[in-house]
Amino acid sequence: MSSSSWLGKQRKPELTSLAEKVGLEDYASLKKADLEVALDEHLRANQTQLSKDPSLDPFFKYLSGPGPPVKKETSGAITLGEETKKPRARRTTKAKEDIQPTEHLVNLLDSDSSEPEQSKALVSRSPRSSLSFASDVRLPPSPSVVVDQIDQRTANIRSSISRTWERSGVIDFTENLRDKLSTTVSIESLALVVEICGLQKEILPIKYLAMVPASRILGTPEIPAKVPDLFVLLTPSFWSTFLLWLSTSVVLPMIFAYFFNLGLKAKHGQVRHAKNVHPANQYDPLAFNISKALVAWLVYRQELSFGGLVADESIQKIQDNVPGGYQGIMIGAGIGALTSIYEAILKK
Predict the structure, then answer these.
(1) How many CB atoms lie within 10 A of CB 276?
(2) Which of 7, 35, 55, 264 has minimal CB crowding within 10 Å?
(3) Model confidence over 197-230: pLDDT tens digits?
(4) What is the SS3 assignment for 311?
(5) Please, are residues 278 and 310 in contact by the beta-carbon 8 Å criterion?
(6) Opening angle at CA 266, ends 262 and 269, nearest 5
(7) Taking residues 296-311, what's their average pLDDT?
(8) C-alpha span between 18 and 38 (Å, rounded)
(9) What is the pLDDT at residue 215?
(10) Which are the contacts of 66, defined by CB distance < 8 A and separation ≥ 6?
(11) Within 13 A of 43's CA, how many CA atoms are on the CB side?
């Protein structure tokens, strides 16, 4: 066992402390294999001073022991080389044929002498030195540290997504839309939109205009372009049907809701002046829905023509195209009435 093998058994922290103890310089950046070589050379160079240290006795014990045996082939090669050098001094008296075998033998001996250097190079590239980089890799102390790092990264990603979502303004838009739709007026308006959408197919039909060609770049097929037939606006049938629906579903109920407004009553039973009333409270939503249902029943069920002002054809168009007919109009009015009562209870 050589002295470097004793150093090879030591761990890197022990070698580091040993290097500091013996006064080795510039050892902090060295790897374990390089640190072993540097310590071996330093201890050999300062053997007389450091041999008195008891902690270094194992190193100097192997250092003072017998060295490795010398191969006989090497000594023989050296002897043979020496013997071959002597005839080369009398080369001037020999022929050319005698010189060539001698030179060939010398070349073989030189190649044999280079083999120990190659073996030393292979020894320097041992598995211990090739794996010395593993001592410099910092591993986590425990799996819990890895879990904490993952949780922290996940929390950072969630917070960034939340901040991006808040800056987009979607939350504010949703809250404002919710505030506007949470009223009786919005529910009544929705019922009117359903009625007019069903009636639009009859009084303002959609006509084919042209064909949009297919696009190979976008991968879209041919799409027919359709637009409302605006020429029907010039016909009396459109206006008679539309004005009948507008009068029975909007105008007449609004007139009744304005004059029969029970919400204008003050605490002492006096009607408040219109200037002091909020515009949203100018019309009573309950009176609006009750009058709307009553007018729809009279016109579309009882076929009240108001002295011949309403054409039977217009009544029939509304009956056939409004979703549910006059029953659908009355159902929408009933939903609006229940909503207005519920809203009035919540405000008390």
Answers:
(1) 8
(2) 55
(3) 988 888 888 888 888 888 888 888 888 888 888 8
(4) coil
(5) no
(6) 85
(7) 83
(8) 11
(9) 83
(10) none
(11) 28
The reported pLDDT for the residue numbered 263 is 75
More confident residue, 94 or 201: 201
Question: Please, what sign has the CA dihedral across residues 85, 86, 87, 91?
Answer: positive
Q: Which strand (E) or helix (H) includes residue 149?
A: helix 143-167
336: exposed, middle or buried (Cβ count in 10 Å: 0-12, 13-18, 19+): buried
Strand pairing partners for 226?
208
Enumerate the β-bridge partners of residue 210. Answer: 225
With contact defined as beta carbons under 8 Å apart, do 261 and 283 qualify?
Answer: yes
Token reading at 140 = 């986590």
For 190, half-sphere exposure in the C-beta direction (CA atoms, 13 angstrom radius) is 13
Question: Tokens 């105008």 sit at which residue?
Answer: 251
Block residue for tokens 């009882």? 302
| pLDDT tens profile 47-83 | 777 777 877 777 777 676 554 444 444 444 344 344 4
Give tens-digit pLDDT for 119-141: 444 444 455 555 555 555 666 67
pLDDT, position 61:
75
CA angle 93, 96, 101 (to 5 degrees): 105
Question: Distance between CA atoms of 286 and 246, rounded to whole angstroms?
Answer: 19
Q: Which residues contact 272 (CB under 8 A, 6 or more apart)?
A: 264, 266
Q: Which of 92-96, 165-169, 287-291 has the weakest average pLDDT? A: 92-96
Quote the pLDDT of residue 207: 86
CA-to-CA dists, residue 222 to 96, 214, 226, 229, 259, angstroms: 98, 4, 13, 22, 55
Sign of CA dihedral 194, 195, 196, 201: positive
∠ CA 265-268-271, nearest 5°, is 35
Question: Torsion over CA of 79, 82, 83 and 88, rounded to 10 degrees?
Answer: 160
Degrees (nearest 5) of the Cα angle 293, 296, 301? 120
